[in-house]
Amino acid sequence: MALSFSCTASLTPQRQVKVNIGSKNCLQNVKNLIKTIGIPTISTTPHKSLQKGNWVKLICGASFEDVVDIRNLSLVYTLAGVDCIDCAADASVVSAVNEGIEAAREIVPLRRPWVMISVNDHEDLHFRKAEFDPEDCPLDCSRPCENVCPANAISLEKANSTVQLSYGTNTRGVLTGGVITERCYGCGRCFPVCPYDKIRVVTYVRDATATAELLRRHDVDAVEIHTSGRQTKFFEELWSGLADSIRYLKLVAVSLPDLGDSTVSSMDAMYTIMEPQLHCYNLWQLDGRPMSGDIGRGATRETIAFAVCLAAAKDRPLGFLQLAGGTNAHTVDGLKKERLFQTPAITKNSKDDTSLTNSHSSLCASIGGVAYGGYARKIVGRILCSMQSQHGLAHIEGYPEYLLEALIEALGLVGTVKCYDRTLIGKRNK
Ligand code: SF4
Ligand code: SF4
């Protein structure tokens, strides 16, 4: 499988953003493109987007912590009009997201997307990292791990290692490098390809107390709880650990897999646990085929099948429905085929707060929207990668020609849900 992008930065660059004269024209083209499409005027508030069925969330990745990429991705997708940016529950990552949002709003005064942090109640695919000791790897290994990684989170080089022995020194060739931890988002594609079984999986659970601290920040609007849905005791423990921090939020999302016949009863059980403290909107993220959107067209089928089942479930608990897991440029077409794209349904999308939804039975879209992760990162990531290979760690607005290119990609994807005029994006405003 081809690499989608390659970046190895982990620190926020301190460089001053300078824009040369040629690039200034390009920055004007960025502004013109956003104005031509009309994003500032057609963007609705995030909760209205959920109601209309045109909510778009960028998933930076629950374990992806490369703050340079995260800042630039947040900037580009804010300009493209997303409603929410979902990121790892880590203070520096949250700061990078907010920095990207504010940098975007300095270019064009758009409404601020909600910032969501993702946590898990127990072991979960999204909360793990690959790990191995490169010195343990045979020197002649063809390194399939490196090639298969969609985040280019594995970097290996041949080097010499000299060991001091009693009779002198011994020099031998070894591999150095390994997993770039902050870039690994736990997709698991490297695990089965290692012919020597050298790669370990390190799983972790986000700490509830640290999460509660983050939720009290003024620049965090939402939380997403990833759960297997099979054992509500873990969900209950996390929920009680988050305590009163929930009251600061605008949205609580629960990301769950398709549990077949027991999906709705599991949702019911979790909703019952949340209900006493739930005074904001809530959303169910239908996680079809996790972390696979970049693989291809077929990856999106599972989340659409999941949506078909839940949209038809009349007895499910309150909350918006949103697709994730395998979502890509084909997702909206799949929804349209199932007549689920922005089709109205009488649903109940929040507890009972009439000030939030106008009515307990507001006329809402049956599917609130779509979240894009690996695919969204891939299409913009390759431009970020190209910029970094030319200019090193950089703020993308300092290189508006790259920003324009990245924005066109992002608008193409976000526009499938937001129904932007594709012909205007295609003109590229040159
Ligand atoms: S788990 Fe996925 S992201 Fe992490 S190193 Fe392996 S292939 Fe790369
Ligand atoms: S495939 Fe396995 S043995 Fe080969 S470089 Fe990667 S981790 Fe090492």
TrEMBL record:
Entry annotated with the keyword Metal-binding: yes
Limits of the 4Fe-4S ferredoxin-type domain: 128-159, 175-204
Keywords, in A-Z order: 4Fe-4S, Iron, Iron-sulfur, Metal-binding
Protein name stated in the entry: 4Fe-4S ferredoxin-type domain-containing protein
InterPro entries to which the protein is assigned, alphabetical: 4Fe4S_Fe-S-bd, 4Fe4S_Fe_S_CS, Fe-S-bd_prot_LdpA_C, LdpA_Fe-S-bd, PSI_iron-sulfur_center
Keyword hit for ATP-binding: no
Sequence intervals crossing the membrane: none
Any single Pfam family the record assigns to this protein: LdpA_C
Molecular function per GO: 4 iron, 4 sulfur cluster binding; metal ion binding
SUPFAM superfamilies: 4Fe-4S ferredoxins
